[in-house]
Amino acid sequence: MDVFLQTLVAGILKGGLYALIGIGMTLIMGVMGIINLAHGQLMMLAMYVTFVLNTMGVDPYVSLFIAMPLLFMLGVAIQKFLLNPLMKVETILPENQVLMTVGIGMVLTEVARFVFSSDYKYITTGYADRTFYIGNISFSVALTIAFVIALSFTAAMFWFLLKTDLGRSIRATAQDKDAATLMGVNTGRITVITFGLGSALVAAAGCLLAPVYYIFPDLGGPFTAKAFIITILGGLGSTVGAIFGGVTLGLAESMGATYFGMEYEDIVGLTIFILVLLFLPGGFKRLTKV
Amino acid sequence: MKKNLYQLILPAVLALLPMAVKSEYFLHLMILFLLWVVIGSSWNILAGYTGQVSFGHAAFFGVGAYTAGLLFQHLQVSPWWGMALGGIVAMLIGLPFGAICFPLRGAYFALASLALGEGIRHIATVAEGFTGGMMGIMIMPTFTSKAPYYYIALGLAVLSVLSIRAIINSKPGYYFVSIREDQDAAASLGIDTTLYKNISLSISAFWTGMAGALYMNYMGFIDPNVVFSLHDYSVMAILVAIVGGVGTIYGPAVGAFIMVAFQEFFRTGFFGLFDYLGKATGSPAFTALSGAVRQAHVLGFGILVIVVILYLPNGVVGDWEKIKRNVFRINPAG
Amino acid sequence: MKGTAGKAFVVVAAVLSLVMAASAGFAETIKVGVLLPLTGSLAKFGEIEKRSYDMAVGEINAKGGVNGKKIELLFEDDTGKPDVGRSAMEKLISRDKVPVITGGYASSVVAATAPVAQQFKVPFVICTGSSDDVTEKGYDYVFRVNPPASEYPNAVKSFLQGVARDVKTVALLYENTAFGQSSSKSFEKDAKDLGLKIVVKEGYQAGAIDFTPILTKVKAANPDMIYMVSYVMDASLLMRQSKELHINPRMFVGGGAGFTLPEFAKSAGDASDYVYSATLWVDTLPFPGARKYSADFRKKYGAETEYHGAEAYATMYVVADALKRAKSLTPKDVRGALAATDMKTAFGPVKFVSYGKKTQQNKLDTYMVQWQKGELEAVWPKNVATKKYIYPTPHWDRRR
């Protein structure tokens, strides 16, 4: 029983972090209909920001407030100068924007390697391996904090999208771009802001992950993959769906690791992904309509 | 007329190359280039002509390579038989691949193909008993000389490009393009879109698998991270086609050349030029520059991709007129 | 337009002729090819090994080189990928025409490049790549200075027989890489010979975020020993999370790779205390020049070295020794000289012998080290120990 409960807790805590990685992706995919294959690389960059700030004595949780605006600006620049110009260009493949994000991801990774080399960097904090116990079940303090922050960000995003004018414009663009344009929404500006927001959110995930994990230039790829799995599970553009998708993926990986074997961790994630694509297109969002 | 002349001269030059050039190293680069011609062209028929952008071509490449490797490992059959079977096994893998991916469109198709490619890599890693896991499969290459491999690669490249060209210029080719342009319209005209997508995928998988089988024979070593690599094969196949020109017959060949030359150029620091300048002038700046250039070979490639997508969205071949106009300032009218 | 092109042509031609002149100018040196991952994810070790090769060649050349000629190293970057490694190997053989090639870090690169050396009959002296089968193919132009992966746990085996005789059950965790999979296989065999029961055996993808699930499983199985084959950061996470979960076996043992690196102790903090590891080398071993090598390395580069660096450093001396004894500088004669190698190096005695299925393989002892208060101490075998082993490992809640 302890094994089961501990696995459950581990999966849910990890899922919280995954959710935060997924929210940014789901926004971008929902609004622009493109997969951002540089998503994990943006997170990697935020982790390096956290690392550099840490060497100057800034706590990872404080660096949230620096990394998020920085990555917001980077996201805005990427959308404005690299992705939006592609919308006007006539090409054979509509996927040019996706391929562009591949190029951006490569550049980000290699720039990081250039500046920081391939060495592993890590942040040591007083609380990174602190734990507390409920019964026999251990909770990692850092992951629990990450979980709580992830939940509050999601709640904030939910409120923002539902209650503010900007949020409503974003949702309108996601639902029907042409109609939104007709209603007077400046969709070009909306896509720029959305990409910035998505980048800032994944930056937050990076700051929270940095103390419990480590940092190297190639870490982006696997997290990009996790982000799109979460997005497909949750449904495009759905923040609540991202939480569901993140926790589902976290749980599936943990349960898979305990009951099948850890080497099947990634296979479990990919299998769920393909099953959802085939049998529940639209993801969790289709069931709940949120 | 002029075009026909090129078509005769180029193969003749390529065929005579090993006799003129004695450098094994140069032939090795040419073999890599020819392999990429095959992979790039195969990706192109599915994505560039049929509009199904696959992010999982490493699956076919790897399956082809493993067919050859496993035949040797388990049955002590010469891995050259893999050349016969690799393409067919890759085609067979293509069937479930298509069954899963083809109901999906656009970004979803791309994601599903990416997931399948990665899934196969994980399975090959975990199935240690069958595939040898990460310890890989090692064989002794048959020939010491590069020339036989070069000719096989050349044959493969020529056959794949010619066969793809023949198909594109025939009825199925038109169906492919109509599916790419508007799938629903194609279906309403009575084209069996699923069937033709599968045909396109089969051709694509077949040639990619053949390239994989040749890779096993030539390199003598494979492991799952090498041949099922998302970055080194699935993504690279896309980049080769994009740089050269998606949806053009010779685009991937041009892209392959640019890519192989580019990578080797950077990896060796412009063939040791900067190192030499550093030594000759005694200036540490050149040595540092050489180090930086070597470090930057993937960075350079990433920037190349971004620049190409921004300014030559149809690739070097697709936008050739534009390049002539803007770079060489040649007016086609004059 | 034409004028600029013409000028550019002149410049290019001038540069090219300079390059040619230069290659003629360095003719009196002996060129030795070195294949290492200098960029990419393995670049960290490539760098340590490159520095060690440079240091060794500097010392050799300062003492007059090889029979009056200086050695010049031609480094080729294999980026850790077999196909690139093969390009690099072929460039060294067919363009640079080197009489001997050394280096070889990643197992996959070594596996792909060794047949090339064999086919072209140019000797390849491997310093690090450890997958067993490379020296099991009967290649007579391939030599290996380091022990193969299957022999890394030899010292652990003798420790289990000599000291930790109360260990009956083992959990085996390993990364899914060539090194991890082959080490785990050979450890499984050793465990069987010793009559140990393997209660958990799990492979994992290197780079996992959370090991809690398998560690929970390990905790429930309550083994006497946990044997882990992991790279440095996975090693650190495994130990940190073992601490979080309060897993208390009688000993934690790392199978080489990441567990001996300074980064492991730094990033894992006190969770690294008392962890044992198999290793191939520590600088306190009684080999000539071992201490001096690590001290010089620290002085010259301001960084720590470890066993990979020592492998590279010693291998360079082996190559130089063979070049000195070779009748001529043809690959064939250098191969002959290498086969007759019998010398002492900072990495231990080197002699290429055949045993079991292996040929031209250097046979070396392996050692056990233990982290004690942030320092890596040699603890086994007793004759090389710098500190006494602490066994069994204290319980987490009884520490400090």
What's the SSE blueprint?
The complex is a heterotrimer of chains A (290), B (334) and C (400).
Chain A: H1 2-32, H2 39-55, H3 60-88, H4 96-116, E1 131-134, E2 137-140, H5 141-163, H6 165-175, H7 177-182, H8 187-209, H9 220-234, H10 239-259, H11 265-279, H12 284-288
Antiparallel strand pairs in A: 1-2
Helix pairs in contact in A: 1-5, 1-6, 1-8, 1-9, 1-10, 2-3, 2-4, 2-8, 2-9, 3-4, 3-8, 5-6, 5-8, 6-8, 9-10, 9-11, 10-11
Chain B: H1 2-20, H2 24-49, H3 58-75, H4 80-101, H5 106-126, H6 128-131, E1 137-138, H7 147-168, H8 171-181, H9 183-188, H10 193-219, E2 221-222, H11 224-227, H12 230-244, H13 251-267, H14 269-281, H15 284-295, H16 297-311, H17 315-318, H18 320-326
Antiparallel strand pairs in B: 1-2
Chain C: H1 2-25, E1 30-36, H2 43-62, E2 71-77, H3 82-95, E3 101-103, H4 107-120, E4 124-126, E5 142-144, H5 154-162, E6 169-175, H6 178-193, E7 197-204, H7 212-221, E8 225-229, H8 232-245, E9 251-254, H9 262-268, E10 276-279, H10 290-301, H11 307-325, H12 331-339, E11 342-345, E12 348-355, E13 358-362, E14 367-372, E15 375-380
Parallel strand pairs in C: 1-2, 1-3, 3-4, 4-5, 6-7, 6-8, 8-9, 9-10
Antiparallel strand pairs in C: 10-14, 11-12, 12-13, 14-15
Explained architecture:
The complex is a heterotrimer of chains A (290), B (334) and C (400). Chain A has 290 residues and is an all-alpha fold. Helix content of chain A is 75%, strand content 3%. Chain A contains twelve helices and two strands; from the N terminus they run ααααββαααααααα. Chain A has helices at residues 2-32, 39-55, 60-88, 96-116, 141-163, 165-175, 177-182, 187-209, 220-234, 239-259, 265-279, 284-288; strands at residues 131-134, 137-140. Chain A has a two-stranded antiparallel ribbon with strand order 1-2. The longest helix of chain B is centred in the middle third of the chain and has 27 residues, at 193-219. Chain B is globular and about 70 Å long. The relative contact order of chain B is 0.15. Chain C has two domains: 29-147 and 286-362, Rossmann fold; 151-279 and 366-398, Response regulator (Rossmann fold, 3-Layer(aba) Sandwich). Helices cover 42% and strands 20% of the residues of chain C. In chain C, strand 3, helix 4 (107-120) and strand 4 form a beta-alpha-beta unit. In chain C, helix 2 crosses helix 11 (307-325), helix 3 runs parallel beside helix 4 (107-120) and helix 11 packs across helix 12 (331-339). Chain C is elongated and about 65 Å long. Chains in contact: A-B, A-C, B-C.
